[in-house]
């Protein structure tokens, strides 16, 4: 089974996707982390974020890998754990530009589809239901107000121990700018798939969002059983 969870930055996609995967014993694939890893590779090599050819070369040389360490997914570039670094404000500010590059998207989408073709997966991102897994049995589109997402991001910085000097208003402005970039890019823009179920998480707890998505998955599983 394929579960696609899309939505704008800091809408809670990764948090709920991880929990759902754990509850169902599915594999969780964090596509956003893959694009962030490409961005940090560009940064480390001093490559302009618009230089597709050079970024692709560096990605090929370095390699991107997911590993589970103490029941937590970690992201590695080469042999270095970059799970913390990919969440810093600089990477967040530039990942939209890198992820909009056609060659980068093609490479990452190919990897994502390879993973999804081998196992039951929960995958989250911006274009999972529209581009990466258009035939996913369950498609969810999470939304939330920009201010509530800014609060979540600030809390995430604190929990991860990431140094950040931004105010909540500055984070909100960054998120709004990211929304615009993501929804206006030419390649696989952020948009809700026609068959996706929209859930507004602004005033919901994580547990409530997880329960709502699990209910949709159960409905889909019952339909598949009847067809089977």
Automatic annotation (TrEMBL):
Entry annotated with the keyword Cytoplasm: yes
Domain of life of the source: Bacteria
GO MF annotations in UniProt: ATP binding; dCMP kinase activity
Gene Ontology CC annotation, any one: cytosol
Gene3D superfamilies, per the entry: P-loop containing nucleotide triphosphate hydrolases (3.40.50.300)
InterPro entries (UniProt xref): Cytidylate_kin, Cytidylate_kinase_dom, P-loop_NTPase
Binding site for ATP: 7-15
Record's keyword terms, sorted: ATP-binding, Cytoplasm, Kinase, Nucleotide-binding, Transferase
EC number: 2.7.4.25
Catalytic reaction(s) noted: CMP + ATP = CDP + ADP; dCMP + ATP = dCDP + ADP
Protein's UniProt name: Cytidylate kinase
Organism: Lactobacillus bombicola
Species classification: Bacteria, Bacillati, Bacillota, Bacilli, Lactobacillales
Gene it is expressed from: cmk
């Amino acid at each position: 089974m394929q579960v696609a969870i899309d939505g704008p930055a800091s809408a809670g996609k990764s948090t709920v996707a991880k929990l759902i995967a754990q509850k169902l014993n599915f594999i969780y694939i964090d596509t956003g982390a893959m694009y962030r890893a490409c961005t940090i590779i560009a940064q480390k090599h001093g490559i302009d974020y618009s230089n597709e050819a050079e970024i692709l070369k560096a990605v090929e040389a370095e390699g991107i890998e997911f590993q589970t360490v103490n029941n937590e997914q970690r992201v590695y570039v080469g042999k270095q754990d970059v799970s913390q670094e990919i969440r810093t404000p600089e990477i967040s500010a530039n990942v939209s530009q890198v992820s909009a590059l056609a060659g980068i998207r093609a490479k990452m989408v190919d990897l994502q589809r390879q993973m999804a073709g081998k196992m039951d997966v929960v995958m989250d991102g911006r274009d999972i239901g529209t581009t990466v897994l258009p035939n996913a049995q369950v498609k969810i589109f999470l939304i939330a107000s920009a201010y509530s997402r800014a609060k979540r991001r600030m809390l995430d910085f604190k929990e991860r121990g990431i140094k950040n000097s931004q105010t909540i208003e500055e984070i909100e402005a960054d998120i709004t700018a990211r929304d615009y970039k993501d929804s206006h890019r030419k390649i696989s823009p952020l948009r809700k798939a026609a068959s996706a179920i929209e859930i507004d998480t602004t005033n919901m707890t994580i547990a409530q969002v997880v329960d709502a998505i699990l209910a949709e998955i159960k409905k889909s599983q019952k339909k598949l059983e009847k067809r089977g």
